[in-house]
């Protein structure tokens, strides 16, 4: 690792040490600002100082050449662009100086600072540093926590040290950042400093205040390595409301907390958090990882088993593991996570099951999640994901091995009473097909033109919708209107679609206020029969004498996380 030499007069400012040779060192915990000093800039400052003692005619030329080599200039840049004053005036440099001075005052020769002790131009070094960072904070002799935005309080005797510390922890930006979580948990000794580097106190003095602010139990601060004894869900809850600049860092800042190492793939977005959870499942049988709850969800929300971000663990601060040893490992397969759950029937819905997750809450209630079978076999999805199910007694369920994809695949013929909307989209794009546009929708008050969805109200047993479509010839010489009707019965879970040919011209439709009822009258009775099944989930409209057919279909699917009925129409290009 790279360490900053804080002793004045020694030529080596940044020193590399192999893992077996690392000396005692202090480490800085802080929040980044816009003008931090990078590793390259710190090396540049050191070299400027070295060359400034050589008053020969070639010094300026050599400085310029070095700047170009380090990416700080080009053949047309001025000396001012690499001037020492520009770097030394930054607040980030002042922070380095003060942290170094404090480390030296405490008797340490070296300090580690993340802004300038990682060569971020090297992706390999950055990856190694992030995967090692928890260990570096854990092995430090002391962590200097700099609360830059907290001024030193006036000595008026009104507030106690405890009150001052609690207010500082509650209001400092440092308490809200993702990376500073491990910087608080890992070190045995933390010293907190106000914005002017006045000492506020040590971690051991403020255990209760830190616990109240962060949700982390005091024993985690008191006993080294005790964080590993806390359930996965509870550890995740500590990061629930912390922020990172990059979305991927929501996962990467937690690697050390779970003793995980994995490659960094910036650009993968929330997949990083999914990968973190998959890696956790390779090292533990802690089912509390499934105790998350979606921020917004209802009975129509279908999800996989893994959370999307730490915020979904916001209510997991008191979850404990049951004293049960699993003999069946969780596995990652091409068809989803393979998990063994203890199943109970769901008293709310016979079509679902309650799966116990071998965890309990502070009231000693067993916790479970609701699942639904998607294919009549072993493929399941989590439903009603906005909450977990507390169970007062401790019943024995039936062990079942199931598979759950993180990216769900809903069978097109899936049936459920929970369909929330009809989602209208294009079935196929083909240049031989005439363009099709929506010119009217019924019921209009349930139509969302932005999401292309017709809502199905929760209190509706029989949902019915109509799209009035206009088929335009390729030459735009003429057009033809025809309605497509579709419906869903919540009691029987039957759904259907029907194209109504030879209906009316655009002018005639405009003159008839009850055109929707006319459409309804032309739908054959067998369409409404649940026994018709898949036979009424597809229809075709032949365009005039051209012989071209416009296919219309309806099938089950997901829109975002919501179970919906997808109405797909050939050649659909625009909707109103």
Automatic annotation (TrEMBL):
Domain of life: Eukaryota
Cited InterPro entries: DUF8212, HET
Domain DUF8212 per the UniProt entry, residue ranges: 271-300
Lineage: Eukaryota, Fungi, Dikarya, Ascomycota, Pezizomycotina
Protein name, as recorded: HET-domain-containing protein
Domain Heterokaryon incompatibility stretches: 25-149
